[in-house]
Specification:
The chain is built from 14 helices and 45 strands. It has about 675 residues and is of the alpha+beta class. The protein has three domains: about 120 residues, no CATH class; about 290 residues, 4-Layer Sandwich (Purple Acid Phosphatase, chain A, domain 2), CATH 3.60.21.10; about 210 residues, 5'-nucleotidase,  domain 2. Strands 22, 24, 25, 26, 28, 29, 30 and 31 form an eight-stranded mixed β-sheet that branches. A five-stranded antiparallel β-sheet has the order 1-2-3-4-5, with no helix packed on it. Helix 1 runs antiparallel to helix 8, helix 9 packs across helix 14 and helix 10 packs across helix 14. This is 2', 3'-cyclic nucleotide 2'-phosphodiesterase.
């Protein structure tokens, strides 16, 4: 609809005089005319208005019921409509653009054109726009241009709906799975076309997981994120995986600098790592720059301010390699961020988190965040790879008292789904309605431009992936995860892959240090299966994608036993710290109390197994991540702090490949190295 520039039209004391222009001589039956002996008489001239008569309170002309006003009642084609005096204005028997409890109204040609009122504007009988500060609206929209009234000039912008609806597209834990990214581009473009009031967010863990990351260190992912037009992203724990490499966090720094969008991170302290100087700010910015890190940002969408801040799990220090980067308390930092937004009159607040939907409360999770921190409207989450088909609404606090609702969403993993959250806010900024739809990206067509961009990366990955190692898998080497139908998991049970990996660790470590007697590998670091048939380099790297190096640790038998206890603390449930073993074996009872589950623990001496002695020192091999205390291994962390860890600098996947090559053929059988007697 073309908007008209407004003019200040004087309003007479008879509010409806200018409103009714439908019949000559009948301008307002209440104030100008009265009925005398069944005839319509002009009060001022005392003349009868010809052609008009009343019958049973209804006004007629030429024998037909007239479409007009009489006794504050509006008629349309002989049918009585609704009262409109003082409350609602009607056009042709229907609420047109009404003003509840009008103060001043300006009309043109019998239709409400503009108005001045401090509450609500309606269109077609429905609440449409917010109305305050004497702003003028044209059929539900703020007008264009300037209007001067009583010596005061008003400037106008396009109006916005009072009940503001926002579409939040979101991804999490994509882990460099780019083969479907051209389809994700299509899905995003389709949603944007139908929902112009939108934002696109990523909740972290873009890094690590496939050859795309091993080869391009996040730059391939970033090219597509820039193309898709992400509005903001936060950091996952895997963004810090390369911290212990020779280059440190340079790949992450390059990822940030080259981004066409800002990053949000309220609880991560980058100040002690010089590589991040000039990249981060503790501010909530209303004018964020691309390639910078902020506590939070304020984004204007359709005239409304939306606050977005980020959180990363404190578990990162245990499960990744952040180095000197520190992680502050997520609750305290979230409260500070919300307060900062409120201070800038922002009442629609999104927490973009990588703390997990239902992760360990010892660290952090979204449900605790929603119950504890007031003022968060939406939590767009990641980390636990949780597929939430519908929103989870938290509307009670920790004391079970009612609170304003907080909705939580998460898409699953690997870019398989694009989150499409529709959320409606009322005038107070509180969520009144929400609906989540997970778009199955695989069902979309590829965006041609994105597919063309991807080809250059795929060609290089294909070259690497297709190089055969010379080893043949007689059957699939599985990498199971727990499900509704099975408890078997690489994070809870012995697997053939775990055996082969630790065998390779032990063999390589012994060539450098003949005192090494044992090797351990965390189950959370084993990421993919291997298909039956010739094994390729790509498959090997996909199993161990994090670029870890081999390390040795000098440790007491008692501390080793404590490490095994830590590894089975969550059994029979999954734990990334579950330890696979070579050079030894252990038995545990998952039904026993945590800390008292290890039944037996032995190392191999020649052809025999002997019990590990608590007071004896052993040299073992593991990956550098575990050796430094990753996954919460306190005994290893202490050994590292004491200088009892040596990083040998040898790539884990290359050690694994070397072990496979020494065998020529492999199968999926296990050897009984780890047994849970409770099963």
């Amino acid at each position: 609809m073309k908007k008209k520039q407004l003019t200040a039209i004087a309003l007479s004391t008879a509010m409806f005089t200018s409103a009714i222009a439908m019949a000559p001589g009948v301008t307002n039956a209440k104030t100008t005319y009265k009925i005398v002996n069944g005839k319509l008489v002009d009060v001022k001239t005392k003349k009868v208005v010809k052609g008009y008569k009343t019958y049973n309170g209804k006004l007629y002309k030429d024998g037909k019921l007239f479409k007009g006003i009489y006794k504050n009642t509006y008629y349309n084609k002989g049918k009585k409509a609704s009262y409109w005096y003082n409350d609602v204005y009607y056009h042709q028997g229907k609420p047109y653009t009404g003003y509840s409890g009008q103060q001043k109204l300006r009309f043109k040609d019998g239709l409400p054109l503009t108005g001045e009122y401090n509450k609500i504007l309606f269109e077609d009988g429905k609440r449409f726009n917010g109305w305050k500060d004497s702003k003028y609206y044209l059929k539900g929209h703020l007008a264009n241009g300037n209007v001067t009234i009583n010596g005061k000039t008003y400037k106008f912008k396009d109006g916005v709906k009072q009940d503001f609806s926002l579409t939040i597209m979101h991804t999490n834990d994509t882990h460099a799975h780019l083969d479907s990214v051209a389809k994700r581009v299509t899905a995003i473009n389709e949603i944007r076309k139908d929902n112009p009031s939108n934002v696109l967010l990523d909740a972290g863990d873009v890094f690590s997981g496939t050859l795309y990351f091993n080869e391009f260190k996040g730059q391939a992912d970033l090219e597509f994120m820039n193309m898709m037009g992400y509005d903001a992203a936060t950091f996952g724990n895997h963004e810090f995986d390369l911290g212990s490499s020779a280059e440190g966090h340079q790949a992450l720094v390059d990822f940030i600098k080259d981004a066409n969008f800002p990053f949000v991170s309220a609880n991560v302290d980058f100040s002690k790592d010089d590589k991040f100087k000039g990249l981060f700010s503790d501010l909530v910015s209303s004018n964020p720059e691309k390639g910078q890190i902020y506590t939070g940002i304020i984004k204007e969408v359709d005239g409304q301010k939306v606050g977005i801040f980020g959180l990363t799990t404190a578990e990162t220090k245990d499960i990744s390699s952040p180095g000197s980067i520190e992680f502050n308390n997520y609750i305290a930092e979230a409260q500070k961020a919300v307060k900062a937004f409120k201070g800038q009159n922002v009442d629609k607040i999104i927490a973009l988190t990588h703390i997990g939907y239902d992760d360990s409360p010892v660290y952090d999770n979204d449900q605790i965040l929603a119950k504890t921190v007031k003022g968060i409207d939406v939590i767009v989450g990641g980390h636990t790879h949780t597929k939430l088909d519908q929103v989870v609404t938290v509307d009670t606090d920790n004391d079970n008292n009612e609170k304003a609702p907080t909705v939580i969403v998460q898409t699953g993993q690997y870019g398989e789904n694009l989150g499409n959250l529709s959320v409606t806010f009322d005038k107070k900024g509180e969520v009144t309605a929400s609906e989540q739809h997970l778009v199955n990206v695989a069902e979309k067509a590829e965006n041609p431009a994105a597919a063309e961009k991807l080809k250059q990366y795929k060609d290089r990955i294909a070259e690497i992936s297709n190089e055969e190692t010379g080893v043949v898998a007689e059957e699939e080497l599985t990498n199971p995860r727990a499900s509704a139908t099975s408890t078997e998991s690489v994070r809870a049970n012995e697997t053939a892959l775990g055996d082969y990996i630790t065998d390779g660790m032990l063999a390589k470590a012994k060539t450098l240090n003949n005192k090494v007697v044992l090797a351990l590998q965390n189950g959370g670091g084993i990421r993919s299966s291997i298909n039956a048939g010739p094994i390729t380099v790509g498959e090997v790297i996909a199993v161990l994608p994090f670029g870890n190096t081999l390390a040795t640790v000098d440790i007491s038998g008692a501390d080793l036993r404590a490490a095994l206890e830590h590894g089975v603390k969550d059994s029979p449930k999954e734990s990334g710290g579950f330890l696979h073993i070579a050079g030894g074996k252990y038995t545990f009872d998952s039904s026993k109390p945590v800390g008292s589950r290890i039944v037996s623990f032995q190392i191999k001496q020649g052809d025999d197994y002997v019990d590990v002695k608590d007071d004896q020192t052993y040299t073992i091999a593991t990956n550098a991540f575990t050796a430094k205390g990753g996954d919460g291994f306190a005994t290893f962390e202490k050994a590292y702090a004491d200088g009892r860890v040596q990083d040998l600098g040898l790539s884990d996947w290359e050690n694994f490949e070397e072990q496979l090559k020494s065998l020529k053929t492999v199968n999926n059988k296990t050897e009984g190295r780890i047994i849970d007697v409770a099963k």
